[in-house]
Amino acid sequence: MSLKKILRIKGTLAFRLTFWYSLLFSLSALVTFLTIYLLIRAIVYEQTDHSLLAEVKEFSIMQSAGGLSKLKEGMLWEVESEGAKNIFLRIFSDDGQELSATDMSAWRGLQPADRYVERLKLTGANHVFETLRLPDQAYPTRVVSGSIGNGLILQFGQSSQEDDVFLEIVRDVFIPSMAAVTFLAALIGWFMARNALAGVEQVTRTALQISKGNFEHRVTVKDHGAEIDLLATAFNHMLNRINVLFREMKEINNHIAHDLRSPITRMRAAAEMALTTVMSPNEGKAATAGMIEDCDRLLGMINTMLDIAEAEAGMAEPNWGAVNIGQVIHDACALFMPVAEDKDINMITETVDDCMLWADARMLQRLVGNLLDNALKYTPPGGTVSVLVQPFNEQVLVRVNDTGIGISEKDLPNIFDKFYRCDRSRGEHGSGLGLSLAKAIVAAHHGTIDVDSRPGEGSVFTVSLPCAIGLEGPYSGLISSQVSQSPTLVGIRSAAKK
Q1: Of 137, 191, 359, 464, whose CB is crowded by the most CB atoms within 10 A?
Q2: Torsion (CA) 54, 60, 62, 68 in degrees, nearest 10
């Protein structure tokens, strides 16, 4: 494996997870072993001390039965059995005189007898233990000094060679065991890390495919764990949403190109004609007026698109205030009254006196204006357009009803999309942005807009706005009281032009 590949693996998350897992596992194993080792050593040393005490008791019984001579025989027998290099025995009087001892040639460095007698007297105990390091012994020596009756003190010393050899074997087994455990922990950690990150790697591969233009590629959701599966599902939803946005952007670009090309072509043609043809003053004014009209149409479409984008993105800063929705309806109907009269359309308005909302007055004016313009545009002569304002359960409903050409069932789900125009409305002038802007304005006011329509019978657009919008306004009490009261309807009917 090359150095570059090793360095690349070293920087991966799987390697870091494996490293920390192995380290923590090894440290845990080390702490566990040390704890067990210390317990084993304590048990071994405790058993040795019990054995030494048992020897002291045995010699105490021996002294009671046969006196000092019996003790000496027992000492010789014990040394012959265990070996003079492995144990030693000494007998002191309570005044510190050594009365008898086994072969002490291998036990140089012991303190005088009176020191041990003095220590027993100071502690007040029947026996004392100590561990000594003697120059002729390769291993420590465990010594017990205890009273055996009749003013006699027995000192029994034993090499800890057997105990230490046993503990060395335990330690020697630990080193390769720890190496094997660490290696096994690394293998298990690497497997677990790779398995846990398999979903992330699949997401990464999918992202690389997407970056190469394969937008149809998706992450396969497998049983990698709830978190990874949730990530894969969210990533797939994001890709689906991106695909939808790309499709919408493509459609919008096509619509923009189509709607911009016609007026720009007309303006260019008029400009070329003005440059290449001698025009009369009236013809020049007409051409200029046409170009101005096309410019206004383009600016209107661009401004509307910007307004929709700001409202949808939440970047618009509404000028919140108390707005009388009834007055907004009256003003809008008065503005569109000449259009209705010219098309021989009856316009009916039913509103509630002083119905206040906490809203942006300019946005509400554009909302009502777009709905009225849409209704009048697609209502034939002799038809009716009515506007109804009605409080309902802490909401204010605004219904715009027309007896126009209606909307087909297949077109209803798309009428609020940007630049969408129904097949039956292609002959009417428009950019297809009015209803999109209306929906964006309603959303900015935390409301809803719905439509019910049948071809040949007309359409009903229903806007529902909360009575309290944004900040608390000075009319909050008045608004609440209006909802609980029966509305007083004020009707205004236009005289249809005959």
Answers
A1: 359
A2: 140
Cα 21–chain centre separation: 23
- Domain coverage including residue 300: 233-310
pLDDT of residue 423: 56
Beta-bridge mates of residue 391: 396
Which positions of the chain have pLDDT values less than 50?
1, 3, 424-427, 469-498
Could you tell me if 373 and 434 are in contact, meaning their C-beta atoms sit under 8 angstroms apart?
yes
Instruction: Classify residue 216: in a domain, yes or no.
Output: no
Beta-sheet pairing, 384-392 with 346-352: parallel
Q: What is the pLDDT of residue 141?
A: 93
Q: Which CATH number fits the domain that encloses residue 284?
A: 1.10.287.130
pLDDT at 457: 87
Q: What is the pLDDT of residues 328-386, one digit of tens each?
A: 988 899 999 998 999 999 999 888 777 788 888 888 888 998 899 889 988 999 999 99
Give backbone dihedrals phi and psi of 41, rounded to 5 degrees, phi first: -65, -40
Q: What is the mean pLDDT of the chain?
A: 78
* Helices (H) then strands (E): counts for the chain: 11, 13
Query: Based on the domain organization, do 395 and 456 belong to the same domain?
Result: yes
**What angle (nearest 5°) sits at the alpha carbon of residue 458, between those of residues 457 and 459?**
140
Residue 347, SS3 per DSSP:
strand
* Pair (304, 328) in one structural domain: no
pLDDT tens column, 74-130? 999 999 998 999 999 999 998 888 899 999 889 988 888 888 888 888 888 889 999
* Residue ranges with strand state E in 138-204: 141-149, 152-159
Rounded alpha-carbon distances, angstroms, from residue 197 to 131, 191, 235, 497: 56, 10, 15, 75
Strands 356-360 and 395-402: unpaired
| Domain total in the chain | 3
Q: CA-to-CA distance for 141 and 134, rounded, in angstroms?
A: 7
pLDDT at 90: 92
Q: Name every residue whose Cβ is closer than 8 Å to that of residue 302 and which is 6 or more positions away in sequence.
A: none
Could you say which of 132, 165, 198 is where a domain stops? 165
Give the three-class secondary structure for 434. Answer: helix
**pLDDT attached to residue 492:** 37
* pLDDT at residue 265, as a whole number: 79
**3-state secondary structure at position 457:** coil
Residue 97 placed within a domain: yes
What is the CATH classification number for the domain harbouring 141? Answer: 3.30.450.30
